Amino acid sequence: MPLTEFEIIKRYFTHRARGAVLGVGDDAAILRARRGVELVVTADMLVAGRHFQKGADPQRLGHKALAVNLSDIASMGGVPRWATLSISLPDANERWLAAFARGFMRLARRHGVDLVGGDTTRGPLNISVQVIGEVPAGRALRRDGARAGDDVWVSGTLGDAALALAAGRLRLAPRERRALATKLDMPAPRIGLGLALREAARSAIDVSDGLVADLGHICERSRVAAVVQFERIPVSPTLGRYRDRPVARAAVLAGGDDYELVFTASRGQRDAIARISRRLRVRLTRIGSITRPRRGRPVTVIGLDGRPLSLARTGYSHF
Amino acid sequence: MPLTEFEIIKRYFTHRARGAVLGVGDDAAILRARRGVELVVTADMLVAGRHFQKGADPQRLGHKALAVNLSDIASMGGVPRWATLSISLPDANERWLAAFARGFMRLARRHGVDLVGGDTTRGPLNISVQVIGEVPAGRALRRDGARAGDDVWVSGTLGDAALALAAGRLRLAPRERRALATKLDMPAPRIGLGLALREAARSAIDVSDGLVADLGHICERSRVAAVVQFERIPVSPTLGRYRDRPVARAAVLAGGDDYELVFTASRGQRDAIARISRRLRVRLTRIGSITRPRRGRPVTVIGLDGRPLSLARTGYSHF
After folding, report:
1. Side by side, which strands form the sheet with A126-136?
2. pLDDT digit string (tens) for B198-251?
3. Binning pLDDT at 50, 70 and 90, where does residue A66 land?
C-alpha cells in the first residue's frame, strides 16, 4: 500500500513544535512572534536536474533545502524560528523520504527551527521551503546599507562548491573530491555570524549566485560600487592549487552555492570584526572596499598586476 | 533574449508592499506583525498534470494558486497579510508569466495581501505559495474545537468543482459548463466569512479534499463524530439535476476543490449565524450535527431513506 499524504506527514515530518502555538495538522500553523521583533521571511525552491542531480543523496538534499533558506535568514541577521516544506515527489518512496526528513529535521533541530506546515504531492521532484525568522525591530542586516569607504568582508572560503561541479576536469585525491562535494551539498548556514554582525556590519548578503553577482546586489541596492582584490579572496588549499586556472577563477568569482556571507562595515569596525572572528572561530577576510557609484558594472575585481579582471560570467541566473 | 530571474521578478511580481517593512529585493522580506496577534501560516503546492492541466489558463492558475492558500487562512479566521511565491517554469514565456501574475496579483490586491518574496527557476511547472495571516491571540478557528451537540454548517454549495472534472460525461449547456469550470478554476476564498465566524463557530475547515474527508479531520482532531443529512447539503441547480447519479453524489461528498467552509457551532448560535449569512450574502446551511465519538468512520451520511450511505471514495489523497 502506498503511503497517503497524511501518513507521510505524520510519519516523517511531525515533531513537537515547541515554538508554535499549533504546528502541523490544521489548515494553517499558529505562531506567536516575540515582542519587539520584526519577521524575516524567505522562500527557495530546489528542482531536480537544475539544483541537484536526480539521484542525489536524499539526506544531503534535506539538509541543503533547509540550509539555503537559513542562509538567507543569516544574511539578514535573523534568528530562524519556523519553516514550511512543500514537496512534490514522483512516488512515495519511504526510504527516500526517511532519509530526506533526517537531513532536514537534523538541521532544523540544530538551529531550533520548527517545521510547522507544508504540503506533499505527487509530481516531478521539487522541494520548496519557506523560513520565518525574527530580528529585533529595525535591526535587520540589509543589502541597502553599504556606504562609500566601507570595507568589504567575506566569511570562510569561496569557490569550493562550484569547483565540486567541475571536479571531473581536475586531478583530485578522493579525499579532496569528497571535501568539495560536502561543501556543495551540506552548506553550513552562518546564523551565529549573522547575529554577531548586526552590531558591526552595515550591509550583508549570502553568496548564493556568486561573489561578483551578490556583491553587485549590495551595490545596486546601496547605490555604490565595489573594488575587490582577487588575491585577497580566501580559498581552500584545494582550490588554491588551481587558482590560476579559469575554472577556479570562475568558481571563486562567479560560483554560487558557497553560502558564505559577504558584508560591508566601516573601517572603525575592524577590531570588532576580528573579535567576532575569534569568538565564533569563523575566518573573516577583508577583500576590498566600497566606493562611490560609477558607470558600468558595479563590482571591479583587481588582479595581481593591478589591472581589472574581465568578468565574462559574473553570476548564476536561474533562467 | 530570455528573461533572467531578476527581470521576471522586477517586471511581474514587484509591487509596493504597503504592509511590509521591506518587500521583494533582499535576501528576505521584513514584516512587522500587529500587536496582540498570532500568525497563521500555510503553504500549498500546485503541480502540472496533478492539480491542473498542462495547458491551463495562466491567469486562472495565478488566481487559484493564491486562492487555495487564502482559503486556509479563511478557515482559521485569519486576515491574510503576506505571501511568498516560488515557481518553476519550463521556460520564461513572457505572455504566460504576465497572465499568471495578473491573476495572482489581482486576488492579492483584493484581499490586501503583499507578495513579499519567493523564487523563480526553470523546471517542470510547479507553483508553491505560502501565506502568512494574522489573528487576534487565542482566537483562531481550529479543527479541534468541535463538541458533541454542535450543529454542522457549510457555506455556499458543494460539488460543482468536482463536477466540472466530470463534465464530459454529462449533458450540459455551454453556459453551465463554463459556470462549473469557473467554480473549479476561480475559487473565492471565504475570508470575510472566516472573520465573522471567529465569534460564532467552535471549529472550521475548508473543503479542499471533500466534505466527508474534511469534516472527518474536524472529528479526528476534536475526538467526536458527525452525522450529515445528504439531502440537506446545498448544491447548485446544475448539480441538483444530476443529484441521484453516482458522479454527482461523489462530487458532493468527496469532491475537493470547492473551498467552501465547513464549521461547527453550538445550537445557541443559529440566529447569529443567520445574521452573518444575511450580512455577508453568503448562503450558510445546517447539514447535520456533531455526536460523541464512535467506532468506525467518524462521518456518517444519512440518505433520504434514513439509512447511512456507503462511502466508497471519501476524500482526495495526494498520493
Report:
1. A114-122, A79-89, A126-136, A37-47, B29-31, B20-22
2. 999 999 999 999 999 999 999 999 999 999 999 999 999 999 998 888 889 999
3. very high
Q: What is the distance between the alpha carbons of residues B104 and A162, in angstroms, rounded to a whole number?
A: 35
From the CA of B244, how many Å to the nearest CA of chain A? Answer: 30
H or E element in which residue B117 lies: strand B114-122
Q: Which three cell numbers stand for residue B40?
A: 497563521
Q: Which amino acid appears at position A81 of this protein?
A: R
- Give the mutation candidate from B12, B27, B38, B142 for the A interface (greatest A CB count, under 10 A): B27
Mean pLDDT of A173-198: 94
In whole angstroms, what is the distance from residue A46 CA to residue A64 CA? 9
Q: Which helix (H) or strand (E) holds B302?
A: strand B299-302
Are A126 and A35 spatial neighbours (Cβ–Cβ below 8 Å)? no
CA-to-CA separations, B277 to A228, B123, B284, in angstroms, rounded: 65, 44, 6
A84 touches chain B (CB under 8 A): yes
Q: Determine how many CB atoms are found less than 10 A away from the CB of residue B173.
A: 9
pLDDT at A317 over 60: no
Q: How close B175 gets to chain A, by Cα (Å)?
A: 33
**pLDDT tens string B132-149:** 999 998 899 999 999 999
Q: CB A128 to CB B123 under 8 A?
A: no
pTM of whole model > 0.80?
Answer: yes
Q: How far from the centroid of its chain's Cα atoms is residue A109's Cα?
A: 18
Q: Which helix (H) or strand (E) holds B116?
A: strand B114-122
Question: In chain A, which ranges are E strands?
Answer: 20-22, 29-31, 37-47, 79-89, 114-122, 126-136, 151-155, 203-206, 225-229, 261-265, 284-291, 299-302
Q: How many CA atoms lie within 13 A of A121 on its CB side?
A: 23
Cβ atoms of B82 and B20 within 8 Å: the answer is yes
Grid coordinates belonging to A170: 581536475
**Which of the 8 DSSP states describes residue A294?**
-
Q: Which residues pair with B313 in a beta bridge?
A: none
Are B123 and B261 in contact by the 8 Å Cβ rule? The answer is no
